[in-house]
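Minimal example, chain plus 1,6-di-O-phosphono-beta-D-fructofuranose.
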Amino acid sequence: MPSISALQQARASYEPKLPPVLLQNGPFVDANLGEPTESVDDQGTIKGLFPNTYGLPVIQFVPGNQKELPPIRVGVILSGGQAPGGHNVIAGLFDGLKGLNEDNELYGFLGGPSGLIDGEYKALTEEIVDEYRNTGGFDLICSGRTKLDTEEKFEQVAANCKRLGVSALVVIGGDDSNTNACTLAEYMAAHDKGIQVIGCPKTIDGDLRNEQIEVSFGFDTATKVYSELIGNIMRDANSARKYWHFIKVMGRSASHIALECALQTHPTACIISEEVAEKRQTLGELVDHLADIVRKRAAAGMNFGIVIIPEGLIEFIPEVGVLMGEINELVADGSDTGAEFQALDTMDEKIAFVTERIDDENTRGVFTSLPDQIQAQLLGDRDPHGNVQVSKIETEKLFAGMVETRLAEWRETDEYDGAFSAQTHFFGYEGRCAAPSNFDADYCYGLGYTAAALLGAGKTAYMASIQNLSGPASEWEAGGIPLTMMMNMERRHGEDVPVIRKALVELEGKPFRVFAESRDAWSEGVEFLYPGPIQYFGPAEVCDQATRTLVLERT
Ligand code: FBP
């Protein structure tokens, strides 16, 4: 009996499609160099902070000649939240390295950056890598959220690399992890450690993107999984015609996932956090807006609908954002009040403690107006950056409850006469480790292979890049983007720090505009679209489809 599913077994032999330059030449490519680059903002400061890696040119691969290269040992880490396709980045990297020299070796550092700091690794052999080709998850070497952000940690990494004979590192991560990769690359260069550092763009959130990086991997598969589930719920809603479904979808900060799911499924309503912030919409206004849609549909005999809510919304509602900032300060480790807060035994005591200490009356009013459960979630565990873990705040329940209350008020004044019954859902973890779609399987394998080619070309401080992704893989172009090119200065926890700029939904961008033009019609009728499950075998127009966001942005 095989210990893997029938699909996994069939999928293991899928051969990811590579960009033509890599397909034809293997990892032996020449680097066509562009002009020296500048960082996206704060050029003087970034140049000063990254004197050894600033200004590198963009690289586009062109066919090169096979060369004899000495064998190298490379380390790889998976950093941050899981995203479909991570194993294929490792498989592509492994194959690319073996293409450069059969004796090259790949070590997977375990549990994310902490594995690199502690020197815990697994030597990856052909047999091990083969087991994980085209599979979801990060379980081959696991991931973690430890930050690589201090000289001590960099020194430990350098010492471990020296001890293990590792001369190059590949960091597979999101904006924060690649920011760390950039700083690590600079450190290694500044201290002549002889260690190359290459990044790969990962995150389902889709917010590690810019002019050069068209999308991070994982976004495609995750949004397809969520859209399938949303479509299934829509069909149920349209069959039973008695429920309103409030569905929160992941995305720590940006609303790319919510927007993409909306474009794929045509919900009755979808909130986009960036629009809420731009229009400075209050919680009350958002509730009124949703309740009004419910009321109008009820008047038309439709007591059902689908509302998509982005995970990060809560922080973008101006008055709640201010409240969360204040709470972060009050409960922060190391702050005067933090220790006192943490010593309290019960949640009631914690809520009372915070309520008493919020100075501003309006902000205190916002806190006290929230249901107890949401207050408690706002005071829950912080992430390593000291922020609320928004995936744990049940915004979908908050909105379902507040809309219900508003409708009850309108019923009292004869302004509403429908039936309202809400179901709530949160789609996040369901999509992060799904078997990668063809797009992600191909893109990830190509990114790993590109990282190997960049290492073979002796490069450091680059992010592996594949462009032209809205077209078929036969038109994809591979190369490298200097990490410093994506940096700017941002204020984080009271300090100005260099970071890779996070891409939020652009309200002027085509994906949002298409959504905004369609949403009224979606809210009034039944325009649901049912995307169905990801297809791994079959016609290219079904199996190889890129996301609506990518197609709208790039065509
Ligand atoms: P990354 O940015 O590290 O890829 O993680 C994204 C994400 O899936 C967010 O959408 C979500 O808010 C968060 O991770 C959840 O974190 P955790 O995995 O720690 O629960």
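The two ends are 47 Å apart (CA to CA). The longest strand covers residues 29-36.
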